Amino acid sequence: MEYQVDESKVSNIIFVLWKIGSSVSYNQPKICQQATWNQEASTFANISTIGNRSYGVFVDINNTVYVTGTFVDQVFIWLDGQTEPSRIVHDNISAPYAIFVTKIGAIYVDAGANQKQVQQFMKNTSYHSYAMKVDGTCAGLFVDINNTIYCSLVNYHKVIKRFSDRKATESIIAAGNGSNMLTPYTLNQPYGIFVDLQLKLYVTDRYNDRIQVFQPGNLNVS
Q1: Euclidean distance between CA atoms 111 and 92, whole angstroms
Q2: Do the beta carbons of residue 111 and residue 118 sit within 8 Å?
Q3: Residue 220 banded pLDDT, cuts 50, 70, 90
Q4: Among 29, 59, 60, 28, which residue's Cα sits nearest to residue 44?
Q5: Global pTM?
Q6: pLDDT tens-digit profile of 137-178?
Q7: Structural contact between residues 75 and 68, judged by C-beta atoms closer than 8 angstroms
Q8: Fewer CB atoms < 10 Å away: N or C end of the chain?
Q9: 192, exposed or middle or buried, with CB in 10 Å at 0-12, 13-18, 19+?
């Protein structure tokens, strides 16, 4: 018996696999279940480098480290193996909190507390743009494989998102409804967020002492 291959379907599968493999920007180390860490840590950066308070950190696939200096209005960048920042971004940054970096070097930085927006910077240039309108501080930022931007509005008890083909002012609710209640549909001061390759949204529901997962396409948790 001979089987015919639908070349269009094969092409679609190859494209999807390519997109998944090439679009993920964050570091994904493979760690065995028996892995342990040295309990004695070493200091990577301190107050003399990043100021007296820092909230956001990101490590990309090249082991470049990005840190927000919230009280000094700066973003610090270390290349792999360096002990001092290779670049310090300070143009148009105000009280940065969360940070996310894409594979092409687009740096998304929260400036919600003072500027009511998320800023986008390019890694090796001084170019910056207005990426997303927000009502307050983004405690967490994430950009998924479709370049959709997510922000956890910690003081507004919800996660919002902006699709890549929409204007910076056109965001919608991804999770929560603004009420700080303990229900399957609400959040209480959401912080860290993560979107996996199936576009499931994971949220650290801080004051409800839980982790919530929201399925793509609706506001219901699994």
Answers
A1: 9
A2: yes
A3: low
A4: 59
A5: 0.85
A6: 999 999 999 999 999 999 999 999 999 999 999 999 999 999
A7: yes
A8: N
A9: middle
Q: Label residue 8 by pLDDT band (50, 70, 90).
A: very low
Beta strands in 70-199, from DSSP E residues, in sequence order? 74-78, 87-89, 99-101, 106-111, 117-122, 128-133, 138-143, 149-153, 158-162, 172-175, 190-195
| Both structure tokens of 161 | 């998102």
The answer to whether 52 and 16 have CB atoms below 8 angstroms apart is no
Sign of CA dihedral 188, 189, 191, 196: positive
Helix (H, G, I), strand (E, B) or coil at 195: strand
Q: How far apart are CA 153 and CA 27, in angstroms?
A: 25
Residue 66 tokens read as: 């990005």
Tokens at 152, concatenated: 């956890």
Give per-residue pLDDT as tens, 167-184: 999 999 999 999 999 999
What 3-state DSSP class applies to 88?
Answer: strand
CA 39 and chain centroid, separation: 28
Question: What is the C-alpha to C-alpha distance for residues 119 and 108, in angstroms, rounded to an integer?
Answer: 6
Instruction: Kindly report the backbone phi and psi dihedral angles of residue 172, in degrees, each rounded to the nearest multiple of 5, phi listed first.
Output: -130, 165
Q: Tell the residue number behind the tokens 């929560």, with chain if given.
A: 176
Say how many C-beta atoms besides its own lie within 10 A of residue 210's C-beta: 13
10-42 per-position pLDDT tens digit: 344 333 433 444 468 888 888 898 999 999 999
